[in-house]
Amino acid sequence: MLTIPSRFVRAIVQGADRHGINSAELLQEQAISSKILQEEDGLVHGIQFVSLLQRIWETTQDEYIGMTDSRCIPGHFALMVRYVCQFNSVEALLNEMVRYFNTTREDVSLSVSSDQQTVALHVKLKNPELDIEHYLVKFMMTTLHRFICWITGQRIILDQVSFDYPQPAQHSTYPLLFPCSLSFEQSSNAFYFSTQYLALPLVRGWPEIKEFLKNSPADILLIPGSDNRYSTRIKGQLLEQQRAGRGIPDFNAVASELCISTPTLRRKLQAENTSFQVIKDTIRRDLAIDKLVRERLPIASIGEQLGFIEPASFTRAFKQWTGVSPGEYRLGVR
C-alpha cells in the first residue's frame, strides 16, 4: 500500500495529543503537510505513515495511542508473535492469540467462534468510545488477519467482516482493508473465513520472524491478505510494468496477460464496482506521490513517466486526486 488516507493519520495524531505530545512537531519531523492532513480525501505516503506511527509509539510508549484505558507498552504485539510462532496450525494459532490477549490485556479481548463451515475471530474493546474513528479496531483486525496470512504463507480469503458500530459516512477504505462482504451494527467486530484454513501449518522460521518484527508494522501494510480480486491483480500487473520502465499497458494487453477476454474482464470489474480507468488513475496517483516523496525528479518528468503528455494535464489530475498541486505536495514533504 503506497499511500494511506489522511484520516488514519488524523486518528493517530489525535491519539498522540491525548498523551500531551506535540503532534505538530512529529508531523514536521516526518514531513507531513498540515494542508494535506486537512483534506478529507488527502493521501500520505505509506513510508511517512509508518515512520510517524513508530515515532508516536516511541514517544507515547503506547501501541494503542490513548485509545484504550491503559497504555499498551511497545513490544506487546512482538511478544505475541514470538509466543504463537511455536504452534503448528492456524487452529492452535487462533486459540493461543486469544489466550495471550485475554491474559495480558483487560481493555482488549479476543474470542473465537465457529460452525462446520466458518470460523470467526472477534475483537472487543472494553471502552470503544476511546477508539478515534474506529482506528484501533480496523488496525487490529487488519494486523491479525494479515499476520495469519504471513505466518502460513497463504492468502486467507475472508468471507465476511462485521463491525459493531454504524457505517461511517466516510467508509471507502473499508473494502480496501477487507475485500469481502461488510456489515455494520452487528453484535461484534469480527472477521470470518473458512474452517478449511484451520489445518494450515505455520511455515515461517525464526530468521523470517525476526525480520518481520524488525520492519513492523510496515510489512503488515504490504502483505496482500485475502485480496484476490481482478482489480487487485490488475494493480499488481500495472505496478510491475511501470516499475520495469515499460509504461502502463492498455486494456487488451492486461486482459491477455490474465488469460481472459476483454468483455469478460470488463464485466468482472463492473461487478467489483470499478473500471480499468479508475485502476489506472489509482496507480498513477500512488506512483506520483511515491516519486514526489522519494525522488527529486522535475515534476514535468514525473508526469511524463506516468503517461501525461502535458505538464498541465498532470497537475490538474494530481490536484483532483489529492486536493493540492504536485508542487504543493512536494513542498509539504521537504
Write a compact overview of the structure shown.
This protein is an alpha+beta fold. It has 17 helices and 7 strands.
Topology of this structure?
Elements: E1 3-5, H1 6-18, H2 23-29, H3 34-38, E2 43-45, H4 46-60, H5 76-84, H6 90-104, E3 108-114, E4 118-125, H7 135-152, E5 158-162, H8 174-177, E6 181-183, E7 189-194, H9 206-215, H10 218-222, H11 230-243, H12 251-257, H13 262-271, H14 276-294, H15 299-305, H16 311-322, H17 326-332
Parallel strand pairs: 5-6
Antiparallel strand pairs: 1-2, 3-4, 4-7, 5-7
What does this structure look like?
This protein folds into three domains: 3-71, no CATH class; 76-206 and 213-218; 230-332, Homeodomain-like (Arc Repressor Mutant, subunit A, Orthogonal Bundle). The radius of gyration is 21 Å and the shape is globular. The longest helix has 19 residues, at 276-294. It has 334 residues and is of the alpha+beta class. α1 runs parallel beside α4 (46-60). A five-stranded mixed beta sheet has the order 3-4-7-5-6. The protein has a two-stranded antiparallel sheet with strand order 1-2. It contains 17 helices and seven strands.
